[in-house]
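To fix ideas, we close by showing one paired sequence and structure record:
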Amino acid sequence: MNYLEEYYNSFNEEGRLLSRHGQVEYLTTMKYIRQYLERMTDPAILEVGAGTGRYSVTLAKEGYRVTAVELIARNLEVLRSKLDGTEPITALQGNALDLSALPDSAYDVTMLLGPMYHLYTREDKLQAMREALRVTKPGGYILVAYCMNEASVIAYGFVSNHVRELRKSLVTPDWHCLSEPKELFELVRTEDIASLDAEFPVERLGLVATDGATNYLRECVDAMDDEVFGLWLDYHFSICERQDLVGASHHTLDILRKK
């Protein structure tokens, strides 16, 4: 069993997205997914790295045609357990680096909302993007989520008091985290994302901070009543596209259109 399987076999990813602070990332991502789906008639959707189906199952239950590809068998079992058989969804085990089971130019929207968290080399990231682009229709949308560098340096390094450990061996001189599989998550900066996008015939439509300052304030956000949480969401949505703030978010969503 590799590091990734061990992590997802024990970590409650579903619970994270259902927590109040986790809902901010989910609600922000869904806001932008819906923004593009509403422009289309009967879109075909692909989610690569679908996890336990938080996005795919929700969209399928709303009647959208969804193909969900997930690497981890346990996550796929949880995803399938949420279905009653009436949803227009196909759930497959597969790898973001090899979508050869899927045809070219088949999907209006392709979502990679997890794979980039766990790809540690530039070539693997490019391969995942290459495959996502291949299966997306010309003019279609590719939505890619990333874990960001600065939030981890600040929250893990300074707030959780691991900064000496980080500085000793886990960051470059300019504080870029050095990730490998045992660390589980690959951390990037906005310029890293732009560098990947530049390799492909795509147009960026937006780079969004999907949780912004939320994860710095988890306990505060989780303690908010409904009214204050609604105000927090309103504030977050009003600033989540500000490019001077995006790099400090824990998670981002890169929104691309295939030329």
About this structure: The two ends are 39 Å apart (CA to CA). The chain has twelve helices and eight strands. Residues 196 and 209 are 18 Å apart (CA to CA). The chain has one domain: 3-258.
